[in-house]
From TrEMBL:
This is Calmodulin. It comes from the Eukaryota. The keyword Metal-binding applies. Its main location: secreted. Keywords: Calcium, Disulfide bond, Glycoprotein, Metal-binding, Repeat, Secreted. Residues 29-64, 85-120, 145-180, 181-205 form the EF-hand domain. It is found in: Secreted.
């Protein structure tokens, strides 16, 4: 079950949010556990979890579960045991996502890995004929899109104009869509407030993100810099 399916399963009243009672029942938690989760992950303090707050919460619970020595990072053996990977496969994960090259995954590195896994699973789910591509009809049906919306997506992201999206083209589309959702004023860049809101993080966290990825030093993240975050 992917993260979207989990969210939909627990959102029993279908209002687009996870209420405390829904989380309690869905995960089989005690009242005090639910209270702690909402204190930590309900960033806007509205008494419910939207999809992004829920996703962050589930990732953090997963990370903490497999961090068996509680040192705030996943080491080789923890990744192997937690995800039933052999040593070679686990080393490949670390090699790809270990940004600071310490031989393990810190939580932000783990999130990047899991984000890519989510997108690969999503791609596979909607590739109904299992040919390794998303056809226009698969995109239309899977995402419940209108014909003109599908046409626009293919015009922008079908880079080789072969009438289908391979995973890299799909990945770029999804990353671009994430950027545009975060860009609330539609000015083509993410400022401090948009990053704080979109990432559910405080000002210090948002400033660090900008400092790391802002290549042209304009105190914001444009689309090309955003692609750099995701190594596109």
């Amino acid at each position: 079950m992917n993260i979207h399916e989990q969210f939909e399963k627990y959102d029993t009243n279908k209002d687009g949010f996870i209420q405390p009672e829904e989380l309690k029942k869905g995960l089989g938690l005690e009242e005090d556990e639910v209270t702690k989760i909402f204190e930590e992950f309900d960033k806007n303090k509205d008494g419910k979890l939207d999809f992004y707050e829920f996703k962050y919460m589930m990732l953090k619970r997963e990370f903490d579960l497999f961090d068996s020595n509680n040192n705030n990072k996943l080491e080789l053996n923890e990744i192997m045991e937690g995800y039933s990977l052999d040593e070679e496969a686990a080393k490949k994960v670390i090699a790809k996502y270990d940004e600071n090259k310490d031989g393990s995954l810190q939580f932000h590195e783990f999130k990047h890995w899991k984000h890519d896994v989510f997108l690969q699973n999503e791609f596979n789910h909607y590739d109904t004929n299992n040919d390794g591509f998303l056809q226009p009809d698969e995109l239309k049906t899977g995402y419940k899109l209108e014909e003109d919306a599908v046409t626009k997506i293919f015009k922008e992201f079908d880079s080789n104009s072969d009438g289908k999206l391979d995973f890299n083209e799909f990945y770029k589309w999804k990353i671009t869509e994430d950027f545009r959702k975060l860009d609330k004023n539609n000015d083509g860049k993410l400022d401090l407030e948009e990053i704080k809101t979109g990432f559910r993080c405080d000002e210090e966290c948002a400033k660090k993100f900008i400092a790391k990825h802002d290549k042209n030093n304009d105190n914001s993240i444009d689309l090309n810099e955003w692609y750099g975050v995701w190594k596109i």
